[in-house]
Amino acid sequence: MYDVINKYIDKLMTSAPDKPLWNIELFKLGKKPGWNYIDGCMTASLIELYKTTGNKKYLDFVIKFVDYYVREDGTILGYNPEKFSTDDISESKILFDLYDYTKNEKYKKAIELAHNQILNHPRTKEGNFWHKKIYPNQVWLDGLYMAQVFYTRYQTVYGGKDYSDIIKQFKNVKEIMFDKKAKLYYHGYDSERKMFWADKKTGLSKNFWLRSIGWYTVALVDVLDYMDQQMFDEYATIKAILKETIDGLLEYQDKDSKMFWQVPNFPGREGNYLETSGSAMIAYAILKGVRLEALPERYREIGKGIFDGICKKYLSVNEDGDLNLGGICLVAGLGPEKDLRRDGTYEYYISEPIVENDAKGVGPLIMAYTEMIKLEK
């Protein structure tokens, strides 16, 4: 299986920086190339593959890709901090590695540019970052991955290891967005209770969405990885939330494929499907959590089972011998006001396109793959 995955990764690395094969939104939705979390997901996975295998082709590819966007003065093509998008912070987390490997000062300048957005990012009344300026007073679960992983790494390297703000934001999300009965996190929260998709009493969206929870599990395990473990209370807080989140998800795991459903609490319901990206994120979070000793050893086989299940069900060879990864939800969100279709209902989540080879599925699968390789070392 590893040979097949390596071949598949090599195929994707034929991409040009302005037309990456894995950024399906770029082609389907007509977006312009720019600094974005989708490319960040893929480049971060290749950095991790370089760290794991020592094969310099992965690092060389990422440097060439990123250098298309990051200019000598640290400004970034297609990145506007004043959009105040947590999504746009996400790709900047790879800059720490590139600066470490190359000592090129432009990466350090670009890191500070993203951190300046963190310093000025608007917040809800509870103290959490807005998901984006165009989504005022809203917390989306996936936004914890987009912003907090970069934020944690910055605090560890340059910020005196002050994680108090980060911990507070995770605690707020647990307090507000975690359903204790279902043991799952809601996709979104509107602190002002004004959005059409938000419950007027709680501010919560109507449903649970797998990939948003998947992003959240990755946020937790990556924050643990970048946090100084000597900060015992903070580390213990994130560790406990990780285990609780994983345990809740496992109650909804498909027994046959070991994967998880697009709307996780409605397994087998008409229109629902086993979804690749969220499942791969959970596999990665479990495998890495075990390696970091944040999860018990017995979870290792669970993570392996999810990874193998994805490969068996969705990593396929077509008639031309070309490899593809299927079962990936292209995109899902809540609002804005002009987009009433994105209302957080079950019917909405199953209506979004299902695609192949998008980095939101490919990146997490590669990340889980790196953890599988580490198991054998």
Distinctive features:
mainly alpha; 5% strand; 8 strands; globular; Glycosyltransferase; 377 residues; 15 helices
Folded structure, characterized:
This protein is mainly alpha-helical and 377 residues long. The protein has helices spanning 2-12, 24-28, 37-53, 56-67, 86-90, 95-102, 105-120, 143-157, 164-177, 210-226, 232-250, 276-291, 299-314, 346-349, 359-375, and strands at 138-140, 178-179, 184-185, 188-190, 315-317, 323-325, 328-329, 354-355. The chain has a single domain (2-375), classed as Glycosyltransferase (Alpha/alpha barrel), CATH 1.50.10. Helix content is 51%, strand content 5%. Helix 9 (164-177) runs parallel beside helix 11, helix 12 (276-291) runs antiparallel to helix 13 and helix 12 (276-291) runs parallel beside helix 15. The radius of gyration is 19 Å and the shape is globular. The mean pLDDT is 96.
